[in-house]
Structure formats: structure tokens, C-alpha cells
Design a protein that fits this description.
2 domains, 303 residues, Methane Monooxygenase Hydroxylase, Chain G, domain 1, 56% helix, 7 helices
Length: 303
């Protein structure tokens, strides 16, 4: 699917007749042929833009600059707490920008895309927006983690722990993607003069480097906290199970003690009180006393 945008009044607006910015969402065979044969995009680089495992990179081609960067993938309920990472390909020509991605997501929303004056601004602000997208997902992961921790405090099964393991796996993917983007931005900063970037764009690249480093440190802190406290959370679940087993043991022993007393008076032999008119109530009293003695001993020993 193809979408076109033009730059008007410092903003990107949809264009029916075509524009300087073209977005291809999971391009079909005909669109791929057009991009490779007509626009001379490298077929391997085009495939890399759709590969979620591809690392961020910068390549200089004869007629354009190819940029691959990472962004968080749109979360779906069926992902089951796994936050994935996707790749985005940006191909910068003199008079147009070709953007290739695997899913239809809002690209140009937010205040980051105000005051657009050139195609290079579009590229830089897309990378800048991906950093804030990572931060938004990190906040969501934190909220989910806090919710799971509350449930783990009372849980006696592994379901919530497995969810935490999945979140920890997501943070590892995020760390790798953010670090990969950091290497890309450093290369853009190094080649700013080669790409004819203005002084303002070069300074904006410096801001992007700072924001990306802060995003990486925040993701690293979340990952370390989640990994460091995982053993404690496992212990909590095990302790909850031990408390349950202890309670069941108390109930079992509490039932066995009066049962033993009653069973002793139910044997088919001559026993005391067998002819007493209140024998039944006396036996029940003995059973109740045995339960009381058992509970007193349990509390005295602090079992």
C-alpha cells in the first residue's frame, strides 16, 4: 500500500496526486519492482527495511542515502506481553523521501513533526519520534510490571512469573534496538557535512544522541531491576505455596486428632463408658479437648 505526503505550512499533509514523501506499507511485488527498477533501490536494503531482526545502519548509494532504523512494533493483544521491535527503511533522494515499513502505523503525528522545512527534517524527526515511542512503551511495561507484582504477592502459580519473563525478554530487544539506533545517529552526525546538513540539523542530531542515550539508560535500569528482583518474586510464589501447604497440614492434623480419639472408642472390644448413658457426649468432649490441646501445642511451638 502506498501513501503520499507533501510539505505545506511546515507540516506533512496527505496528497492525492503525489508528494515529496512516499510511504510504502508492506509493498507488494509490483511496488517492489518499481522501487528496485525505477528508483534504483538496493533489493537487499529494501528487504532489510521489512526485516525485524535487521540492525540499524547508514549506506550511501549513488542517487540516495539509505537509512535503516529500529522502532517499537505496534502492540497487539495476541502478543501476550511481548513488546516487539520492527525496522523502518528511509531512502533519501534530492527531491523525495521513500519510506518502507512492514505495518501501517501513524508516522507523522505529534509535535515532533511541526516546523518541517526540508526532507532531511522529515528523516531526523522520524528517528527522534522513534525514541519517544520507545519511552512510551517503557512506561507501559513499567505499569504492567507493577500490576503483575501485586498479583504475584498472592499468586501460587507460575503464570504471572512467565509474564514477567516475557517482559524482561522485551526489554532485551529494546536495549538492542536502542543501542543500534544510537550507532546509526552517531554515523549520521559524523557524515552530517557529507549529507549537506545545516547547522540547525547538526545541532538537532546532537539532541537526538542525548535523548537516545537517556532512553537507553532508562531501558537498562528497568531491565536490571526486573532481572535483579526476579529471584525474589520466585521466592514469593514458593513461599505462598509453602504457606498454603502449612495451612492444609494444620487442617489435616486437626481432623486426624479427634478422629483418633473417636476411633479408639469405636473398636469392637470392651471399653470404658460403653454402658454409660452419656458415653457419646463424653467421647465428643474428649475429641474437642484433644483438638484444643493440639492447637495450644501448635501455638506454643510456633509451627
Amino acid at each position: 500500500m502506498r501513501k503520499a505526503f507533501g510539505i505545506q505550512g511546515g507540516r506533512l499533509v496527505p496528497s492525492e496526486s503525489g508528494g515529496a514523501v512516499e510511504v510504502y506499507i508492506n509493498p507488494d511485488e509490483a511496488e517492489r519492482r518499481y522501487l528496485v527498477e525505477e528508483l534504483k533501490l538496493d533489493e537487499h536494503t529494501l528487504s532489510s527495511a521489512l526485516d525485524p531482526d535487521e540492525v540499524s545502519r547508514l549506506e550511501f548509494e549513488p542517487e540516495h542515502v539509505a537509512i535503516i532504523f529500529k522502532r517499537p512494533k505496534h502492540y497487539k493483544a495476541e502478543d501476550e506481553f511481548l513488546f516487539k521491535v520492527a525496522s523502518t527503511g528511509v531512502f533519501l533522494f534530492e527531491e523525495r523521501v521513500i519510506i518502507v515499513l512492514s505495518e501501517d502505523v501513524p508516522l507523522f503525528e505529534g509535535r515532533q513533526f511541526s516546523r518541517i522545512s526540508s526532507l532531511k527534517d522529515v528523516v531526523l524527526r522520524m528517528i527522534y519520534r522513534s525514541i519517544f515511542h520507545f519511552l512510551e512503551h517503557l512506561r507501559v511495561i513499567t505499569i504492567i510490571t507493577d500490576s503483575l507484582e501485586d498479583k504475584i504477592s498472592e499468586a501460587m502459580e507460575n503464570r504471572y512469573l512467565l509474564n514477567l519473563f516475557v517482559l524482561q525478554k522485551s526489554l532485551v530487544y529494546f536495549l538492542n534496538a536502542i543501542n543500534s539506533n544510537g550507532v546509526l545517529v552517531e554515523r549520521l552526525r559524523t557524515n552530517a557535512r557529507k549529507m549537506n546538513m545545516s547547522q540547525e540539523q547538526t545541532e538537532f542530531l546532537d539532541d537526538i544522541i542525548i535523548e537516545n542515550n537517556q532512553c537507553y539508560r532508562q531501558a537498562e535500569i528497568y531491565s536490571n531491576i526486573l532481572a535483579g528482583l526476579m529471584d525474589a518474586r520466585v521466592s514469593i510464589v514458593s513461599n505462598n505455596l509453602n504457606v498454603l501447604m502449612k495451612t492444609l497440614n494444620i487442617i489435616t492434623i486437626g481432623i486426624m486428632v479427634p478422629t483418633l480419639v473417636v476411633s479408639a472408642f469405636s473398636m469392637n472390644v470392651h471399653i470404658p463408658l460403653e454402658d454409660h448413658p452419656l458415653a457419646f457426649w463424653i467421647v465428643m468432649s474428649f475429641a474437642a479437648v484433644s483438638v484444643g490441646v493440639f492447637l495450644a501445642l501448635w501455638r506454643h511451638k510456633r509451627w
